Amino acid sequence: MSVRADRIDRGSASRLSDRVESIAPSGIRKFFDLIATMDGVISLGVGEPDFTTPWHIREAAIYSLERGYTMYTSNSGLPELRRAISRHLAERYAIEYDWDSELLVTVGVSEGLDLAARAIIDPGDEVIVPDPGYVSYQPCVTLAGGVVVPVPTREADEFKVRAAEIACRVTPRTKAILLGYPNNPTGAVLSRAELLEIANLAIKHDLLVIADEIYDRLIYDGEHTCFASLPGMKERTILLGGFSKAYAMTGWRVGYVAAPADLLAGMHKIHQYTALCAPMMSQKAALEAIRAGEPDVRLMVDEYDRRRRLMVKGLRDLGLSCFEPRGAFYTFPAVGASGLDDEAFAEQLLIEEKVAVVPGSAFGECGRGHVRCCYATSTERIREALSRIGRFLERRGVVAGSLPMVDETSVTLTDAGLATTGAPRGEGRSEIG
Ligand code: PLP
Question: What's the pTM?
């Protein structure tokens, strides 16, 4: 009996497809519902920069509107933007993409992820995905008809996915490996040598790789390795790149896919029928970001680094075990010392101390026992959050040390045009990022 017939026999009233029924709503959701009813919450929950998009980038979009650029662009995106992305990838990672046949401007990396999954997955194809990982990976694969095969990663191993662990999960149905490094939620980064081992595996088993490199610029120790730039990888990699995190542009909804022409043509087909194109003004803003946004990126990354060190030291001083994140803007402490599991910890911390963090199990089974704390917020708020977490832990018998001192010689972000206040924030917050 087919699944559908079985469902009808059971008298299910659902009018939704089996695929949609099979995916769970975001595990972060109930916390956001709760936060919406509370005042005075310090949110370490949402994965988005607290900076407002730098002024010159906003101005480029405003100017484009003034000039009447309010139409569709080519489905693939503005040629000048694709040329700029192509130059950017060549200069940064020494990898050549033909701007016309190998680049597609998308509605954020989110759309790129969906396009990649739908373009390559046939029903039942398996995709290997490190656990914990970004909350959209599993649903995108499932909605495309694929099967997620999680690979565990662990704090003791700095949450790195190991080629050997991937290898033992490869089957004749394996179609692709989905890598998201620097990682959300752990902040883990893979070295070039570690990525090379995965590249060799991809060649050996003839696998595709979806590389979500949205956090490529947010790296604190060393350099990011672009997976597609490794020997033999360009032809089997779908590279997803973005503007949301590096340039503080989450609300603009623009990103890109870089891939070999045959794969890109497949994604282009889906994109042209579903999204048509990314918004024109966002593409104009993205062009300004990629042309002239480098100083902003550097300022923001330096600031995130200061906050990262404050947060890691603070959590450790409070008695929590906290792996040092090497990229992105998250810490992922283990909360077992509190005697609570991650969900109870997040819920009780929110209710008792009005600090929002995300339970690690929202990102996969291996996230259980951890919580994700985003440090893309001011040092003052981080300090206040740490002091509230300290009180919360003290009540549970965890011995708290003193709060850490940090180098307060913070850059004058507003002088550099990087405002962190004044914009209407917190409205209709995403339950995903
Ligand atoms: N990929 C990862 C790993 C993310 O953390 C996020 C957002 O949090 C996205 C993709 C979504 O990016 P975009 O805003 O470009 O759609």
Answer: 0.92
